[in-house]
Predict the structure.
Amino acid sequence: MDLLRFITAGSVDDGKSTLIGRLLYDSKSIMIDQLEAIEKQSKNKEEGEIDLALLTDGLRAEREQGITIDVAYKYFSTPNRKFIIADAPGHIQYTRNMVTGASNADLAIILIDARNGVVEQTRRHSIIASLLGIPHIVVAVNKMDMVDYSQDVYNNILIDYAHVAQSLGLKNVTYIPISALNGDNIVEKTDKTLWYEGPSLLQFLEEVRLEDDVDLKHARFPVQYVIRPQTEDLHDYRGYAGKIISGVYKKGDQVTVFPSGVSSTIKAIELGGKEVEEAFAPQSVVLHLADNVDVSRGDVIALSNDVPKTEQELEVLLCWMDNKPLVPGNKYLLQINSRQVRAAVREISYKLDVNTLLQEANPQQAVLNDVIRATIKTASPVAFDAYSELRVNGGAILIDETSHVTVGACMIQ
Amino acid sequence: MPRLDYLDQLESEAIHIFREVAGQFERPALLFSGGKDSITLVHLALKAFRPGKFPFPLVHIDTGHNFPEALQFRDALAAEIGEKLIVRNVEDTIKARNLTEPKGKFASRNALQTYTLLDTIEEFKFDACIGGARRDEEKARAKERIFSVRDEFGQWDPKRQRPELWNIFNGRIHKGENVRVFPISNWTELDIWNYIRREKIALPSIYFAHDRKVIEHEGQLVAVSDFIQLEDKDVVHTKQVRYRTVGDMTCTAAVESSADSLDDIIREITATKTSERGETRIDDKVSEAAMEDRKKNGYF
């Protein structure tokens, strides 16, 4: 059984909450007591009718203050897969929310209201999906019931969206006509769209191929923690604990430690306390090196024949997530996997309009939800890969040194 | 290379989180209740840190209303793995701080244990507390981060949560603050049971079908114990039951069941139509936002 993480992009008006509610309800992930709680709230509904959107309803703090917390996680499974939905609400903070939810997603469902077609919001969602490198995109054309399940309407939206996908270089785009409200093409195919030959949404989510999404070519192992029992019988034991974020490691492989650049070979690999000959992403393991080299938390152990870049000046696309604006020259902590270094944002070369992709040159500052291109200088070298080539070693966060809050998400170019 | 099975993916994610705690904090602790989720955490910690010692003690906040089977299990497990166990008693906090015990039939110390927890955090200067909460349990949990920053009163502020991106965890805090860390956030109840079966993890006997004296309360079965007050109208039955969660004897309900093996339990949970908290927690029914309120006040 496999695991698929996906994000749903769209506003309440697009039927996003109804879609999530429908997936949970029809996959029988909703329990009776949860339904009873919803029925209590759906007082105004007719007997027996459940407002599926309420399944994703928020906290009292959100209702009272009219705010939404960035991402809520929902879970359901079928016999083939476990699914994790990152449900990012719309509204003002959408860019920040969607970037957060999208950072871990294998797939994005972009909802389009069939009556409205491709609108500015569709472009924004698609641009963010492409910036964050989500491997699979499903364009769910919702509310087909409101356009009489018209194939022409659907086809026109496909043609429009194909332009968007092409301009963004989105690959793996799948289109599905649905009605979340009526459950058409969600779990079962409907007989109202006989012209549609593809799978239902759930069938697609269950079958989409994920095998190629884990990078097994570039071996990267960020060291999280050094295990040194220092007991009598284990006094020579020194194991580097971490998660293989990409690639494959075998006993005897020649490796290089970054940023120091020293080399050694893998003496042993432990997985769950047992020695293994090889291990691969995303397994958490303990590596042992043949030589007594200096390795500590935050270092990256890579195979010597394919190494990350090591630099002190990073070109990044940066999504700003704090209420306080970013002013060029400000200092932060940059964290990439387990490595934290002091960093300064040197200059902002342009601001990216996430609705149009237009660039505004040399802005004075960046505010909440802005996406900018900037240069970051770090106090010591950082081992990284370009985000577009290796997502797991190309994303970094900026932390405000005084508030300790996560203020920015960087995609290193 | 094959794709990892979902349980392997969840396991690796949890081990990664454990090691981030070890790497980022000076004085972490693992909050251990003796229930299946915290037992699973211990199993994951063994995979994360052996052959080294845990870089944290196990900490149990004992309400005094625990199931004896769970306490025996707790002590035996700590002894078996040779890790330090710190127990702090709600009873002592009540005396030291002159707290008022809730009254009533099912008087629960659930709310009072927050005081003991915060005192214990202060006593040992814990900067991170690892817990076994899962996001599928409850909608307030569904919105909480894996690294959840709490202020010096232990309060969760849902509006001020840090965005959590990729697999990068920001554990930086001010003095006096602490972080609650939830390595099994993304696991569901069924994932836990499937993992326990796969890894052959031992559990306290109360998770399996046994005969117990119970009374019925609003459709739930509550064990007869010294901690609840029986009324004349209560009828004590002996029923074959098991527990789906293990909390206080006063606020955890049993389910009628003959499931005496993990296979049977998993079969029952797969077919069940009631959520874990809904079926077994008396304390969540008080108000719709009960969990949200408790978390804001420093509860786990």
About this structure: Residues 204-285 of chain B form one domain. Residues 165 and 243 of chain B are 36 Å apart (CA to CA). The beta strands of chain B are 28-31, 58-62, 85-89, 128-130, 147-150, 178-181, 210-217, 220-223, 237-243, 254-256.
